[in-house]
Amino acid sequence: MIIYYSLTGHTKKLAQEIAKKTEDKLYEIQLDKPYKNNPLVLARFTKEKATGVIPTAHKIDIEDAVIYLGYPMWGGDMSLAMQGFLMANDLSGKHIKPFITSGTSTLKMSLKTLKKLAPDAMIDANFNSDML
Ligand SMILES: Cc1cc2nc3c(=O)[nH]c(=O)nc-3n(C[C@H](O)[C@H](O)[C@H](O)COP(=O)(O)O)c2cc1C
């Protein structure tokens, strides 16, 4: 299963490319209060980051053992939408293959957060979707 968050479409495109190769099903993360793709997103994100607010996300049934987890980097870390998803959904025992899109930030910069929010998952930190 491929689980992703995408505000402006980059991560969605990458998720779809992975789906073509692996034939896994795609799930786009749904937030109770979605971000809007406009310049105000930066103000909302900055405020949430400053106050420690993480948006709440929908809970889903996850049967697959392998989860491709895709998110954009925001503020040098995993986007808060994905953080909200991981807080709402228990990925214990799953194999997580993370992938990101960003300007310059790297996946590595988000691994601490990923490990914190999915402490009992096996994380393939060296996953590279180009290798599929
Ligand atoms: C609120 C916000 C914060 C961002 N912060 C970063 C950042 O810290 N580092 C970075 O490289 N890119 C940052 N970006 C750029 C996105 O990571 C990049 O455009 C990404 O591909 C967007 O993915 P999406 O189209 O799937 O939403 C930020 C974008 C937004 C909207």
TrEMBL record:
InterPro entries: Flavodoxin/NO_synth, Flavodoxin_CS, Flavoprotein-like_sf
Domain of life, source organism: Bacteria
Short name of any one Pfam family annotated for the protein: Flavodoxin_4
GO molecular function: electron transfer activity; FMN binding; oxidoreductase activity, acting on NAD(P)H
Protein name: Flavodoxin
Transmembrane regions: none
SUPFAM superfamilies: Flavoproteins
Residues of the Flavodoxin-like domain: 1-132
